[in-house]
Specification:
Blueprint: H1 7-23, H2 33-40, H3 45-55, H4 60-73, H5 77-81, H6 85-92, H7 98-115, H8 124-128, H9 135-146, H10 155-163, H11 172-182, H12 188-201
Helix pairs in contact: 1-12, 2-3, 2-4, 3-4, 3-9, 6-7, 10-12
């Protein structure tokens, strides 16, 4: 599938905007929680896997604190496997669905110890076989922990890609598959971090800041009824 989008221009504009946001003292801590955890724990695969699972349906600030709390007690799967599931749940609280996530993390720790010598596998199919791990989580682990190519599509990436008219899809999974065809591979890994920030600050779900958009020339405003 051939794309007429100037991806280089889009990427440069988003990177420039992100640098400006990071240079502002008030916005220095607005990086997505998993990105922050990845840097804090030197891109440790277990830390990234845990934080990504905790991040599902959870605000970034809650994810960050819950991740640090849990990883302090369980810096690896062996330590987590030794904890009671209710203890893991208390450490994960108030992340969304924390009890379910705690149960999944216990199962994951056991699988990693039994099948992978306590290591997180750098393989998409192996990651997807773990309880509670979907494509978003698997892609983030591959990108942040192993520096492998992947396209992590969350609600922001899905919304923006459709709003700008880059593609037309109904689900994040469908968006990922189309982006794999039309987006040059060199832009895959950084897409999520850029568009999450953009979606949180400018290209919001309701009444986006179109007047301040740096890539509005690339936007078809699909489904936008009100904007600022």
């Amino acid at each position: 599938m051939k794309s007429e989008i100037n991806w280089g221009s889009v990427h440069r504009a988003l990177v420039h905007w992100r640098k400006g946001l990071q240079s502002d003292n008030e916005n220095r801590n607005k990086e997505p929680s998993v990105t922050t955890v990845a840097e804090y724990y030197s891109h440790d695969p277990w830390a990234i896997l845990v934080s990504t699972i905790l991040s599902l349906r959870t605000k970034d600030e809650v994810t960050l604190e819950a991740s640090k709390r849990l990883l302090a007690k369980a810096p690896g799967p062996r330590e987590l496997a030794a904890l009671r599931v209710d203890h893991v749940a208390r450490l994960a609280y108030p992340a969304g669905f924390y009890r379910t996530k705690a149960a999944n993390l216990k199962k994951i720790a056991a699988i990693l110890l039994e099948q992978y010598n306590g290591e997180v596998p750098a393989d998409m199919d192996a990651l997807l076989a773990l309880p509670g791990v979907g494509r978003k989580t698997a892609n983030l682990v591959l990108i942040e922990a192993f520096d492998l190519p992947g396209i992590c599509v969350d609600v922001h990436v899905h919304r923006i890609a459709n709003r700008y008219g880059w593609l037309s899809s109904k689900t994040p999974e469908e968006t990922e598959m189309i982006l794999r065809e039309i987006l040059p591979k060199k832009y895959w890994k950084g897409l999520n971090a850029l568009l999450v920030l953009y979606g949180q600050n400018l290209c919001r779900p309701v009444s986006p800041y179109c007047s301040r958009c740096l890539i509005k020339q690339q936007c078809k405003q699909v489904g936008v009824e009100r904007f600022r």
